[in-house]
Amino acid sequence: MARRSGGQSWNSRVVGAALAVTVLAGGVSVWTAQAGEANGTAPRASATARGKVPKAVAVSIAHASDAGPRGVNITIDDGPDPEWTPQVLAVLKEYGVKATFCMVGTQAQAHPDLVKKVVAAGHRLCDHTVSHNTAMDKRPDAYQSQEILDAERMITEASGGVRPMYYRAPGGAFTPYSRKLAASRGMRPLGWNVDTKDFERPGTAAIVATVEQELPNGPTVLFHDAGGDRTQTVEALRQVLPELKKKGYSFGFPVR
């Protein structure tokens, strides 16, 4: 979710839920996964040796697309949500588009069936922390570590063993420490180029226009499937995806 004023309402609801579950945090999961393969099949989870740390990735914040210079990365934040995630998944399936879902740990833990559906459809997972605190960059390293690693565990367990491949700081509140920690866990820090501001519900036309106007800035587009009424988001995706295809864009995943 993009950093913004008024964002505390969603954050405060998630924090309440997070307090009930962070005490359950144990060891970090020891699963790895192959996700978003070129053939479009669902990711396969495979156990690794106990305690083995996943292969580290770059600490720099990713924006580019693995689909090349005409590639677009659709990213979906803050879910999964039982009302809106299925609708987003349906639109993505209709147009044959794969996306990256940046999930809040407590939401993933509450809706593991939806996490599994996201994975089964060939989409990728992203760690969006436990409590979605957009002031994470002002908190101690120990707090950042717990937020990132607990969410990683929750998402991995909810998915049935498929690990998040990216880490997106709430509101873009990255720190050198959080980027290094996520990268050491095999999660590439993930930014965005196009903030649709769909969380403000500016109207479907405004969301679509923002994508059209800002896409020249870079390929990673930010949408949301939780945190409020996402009717406009669903309809905007229904309009944006086929239009981008007509213009010669292809859809990929953020670089790793």
Automatic annotation (TrEMBL):
Alphabetized InterPro entries for the sequence: Glyco_hydro/deAcase_b/a-brl, NODB_dom, Polysacc_deacetylase_ArnD
Domain NodB homology positions: 70-252
Keywords: Hydrolase
CDD domains named in the record: CE4_NodB_like_6s_7s
One GO MF term: hydrolase activity, acting on carbon-nitrogen (but not peptide) bonds
Coiled coil region boundaries: none
Enzyme Commission code: 3.-.-.-
Record-linked Pfam families: Polysacc_deac_1
UniProt cross-references to SUPFAM superfamilies, sorted A to Z: Glycoside hydrolase/deacetylase
UniProt GO BP: carbohydrate metabolic process
PROSITE patterns in the record: NODB
Protein name as catalogued: Polysaccharide deacetylase family protein
Gene source species: Streptomyces tabacisoli
